[in-house]
Amino acid sequence: MFEKLKHRSLRKKIEHNLNKRDVSEINSQLKTLGFLVDEATFQDFEQLYEFSEYFGLQPKDVKVFSFLEVKRKLPSLRHNQLHNKDFNWKGELHNQNAQEFIDKRFDVLVGYYTKKNNFLDAMVAASNANFKVGLAGSDPRLFDLLIDIDINNMEAFKTELKKYLTVLNKLQ
Fold this sequence. Notes:
Elements: H1 2-19, E1 33-38, H2 45-49, H3 51-54, E2 62-68, E3 81-83, H4 96-103, E4 108-112, H5 118-126, E5 131-135, E6 145-147, H6 154-167
Parallel strand pairs: 1-2, 1-4, 2-3, 4-5, 5-6
């Protein structure tokens, strides 16, 4: 029962955040890049950190935050990880690292997941990112650009993302 209530509250939060989104900085140049990833479908985060070199960014300017449905019993050294238990039944986030990630003003935020995920959708909707990119299969209301590519084909995604960011004058 609480899970249904939690998902309903998350959907309400998503709607609220979509309505209050500030798009005044949507055309800013790419200086910082953030990734929200579903660990159930993608685990090779090193490939995501390589985007810094590909786009001519400093490694510190690329941040990755992941979502794992259920927290593993084994201890994890990963600080940038979110679980379903980090949201209460009202849909409020109780994870300090996740809140800092949301509050950071990324120039481009990539939602690197394809299936509907209320927890990641809530993170994207609440994010202060200027420009949001998602993969096909995600909620199109959350993203400014959707790219239809296989989630496991990172090279094709890099190429497509660079092409679109160049066309949109986000790369110098």
